[in-house]
UniProtKB/TrEMBL annotation:
<dbReference type="InterPro" id="IPR001304">
    <property type="entry name" value="C-type_lectin-like"/>
</dbReference>
<feature type="coiled-coil region">
    <location>
        <begin position="94"/>
        <end position="128"/>
    </location>
</feature>
<feature type="transmembrane region" description="Helical">
    <location>
        <begin position="50"/>
        <end position="73"/>
    </location>
</feature>
<dbReference type="InterPro" id="IPR033989">
    <property type="entry name" value="CD209-like_CTLD"/>
</dbReference>
<feature type="domain" description="C-type lectin">
    <location>
        <begin position="151"/>
        <end position="273"/>
    </location>
</feature>
<keyword id="KW-0175">Coiled coil</keyword>
<dbReference type="InterPro" id="IPR050111">
    <property type="entry name" value="C-type_lectin/snaclec_domain"/>
</dbReference>
<dbReference type="GO" id="GO:0030246">
    <property type="term" value="F:carbohydrate binding"/>
</dbReference>
<keyword id="KW-0812">Transmembrane</keyword>
<keyword id="KW-0472">Membrane</keyword>
<keyword id="KW-1133">Transmembrane helix</keyword>
<dbReference type="Pfam" id="PF00059">
    <property type="entry name" value="Lectin_C"/>
</dbReference>
<keyword id="KW-0430">Lectin</keyword>
<dbReference type="InterPro" id="IPR016186">
    <property type="entry name" value="C-type_lectin-like/link_sf"/>
</dbReference>
<protein>
    <recommendedName>
        <fullName>C-type lectin domain-containing protein</fullName>
    </recommendedName>
</protein>
<dbReference type="InterPro" id="IPR016187">
    <property type="entry name" value="CTDL_fold"/>
</dbReference>
Amino acid sequence: MATTGSSSASDRMYSQLIDEGNYEESRPDVHHSDCPVKDLRRSGPGPYRFATICLATLCAILLISIIAVTAHYKNKPPPSAEATAEMQKENANVSALMVLVTKLQKENKQLQKEKEELQMNLTSIMTAKATAPTAKPPRAPIVCPTNWRLFNNSCYLISKDRKSWTGSRMYCQTQGGHLAIILTAEEQTFLWDLLPRGHWNSYWFGITDGETEDEWKWVDDTPLVGGFWEENEPNNHINEDCGYIVKTEVLERVATKSWYDAPCSMGLPFICEKEMGGTTQ
């Protein structure tokens, strides 16, 4: 209040000096100016006082707000044990779900890898199948005509008719075959076992050296290699140019030493061979 009183006294003194005109006379160093002198009595300290009051009011409001918020949070009760347990349960559920998601992602990755491997295998199989040669249809079982016997892929006829070697060859040709060509010990033994035992049972088969002596050939014109001759055979004793098989009652005789040579004009039974699907001679 003292400040307010001093300010008012100063204003009165300043106004009095202006009214009396003594102010200009007492200050000879002050020159008159064409600019009008502002009347300080009209402005006064009012606006500054109002701003100060507003600022103080805002500070008070802010302080009250801070105190109210602080009191609110201080007075807020802590979460109950039930709420804490529920929150922990929810956190556990979230953790379990995350573990499950991670597991499913790994399984999905493994399934994708297996799918790619299966796709590659399928592609390989399809490629191999496309490039593989077409499989031949299964061959129908061989059925020999009546009185013919099957060995491997050929049928054999043990004929009881007696003919010369040339006549026997012609008969076999009429049956779609040829005189037997014996190339292996297994084939030789098979045919020898079909022959009956006797004093001197002889059977023509498809070998001759009629063109050149001692150059034995099969009826298909291929040369003989080896053979199953008896010891000291062939001997060409009396112009013996055709071969035959002998089976006697002597049990010591064996199939692989049973070939002899004889004149081709002799009348003997014979052995025909029909190669199933082959050519005739």
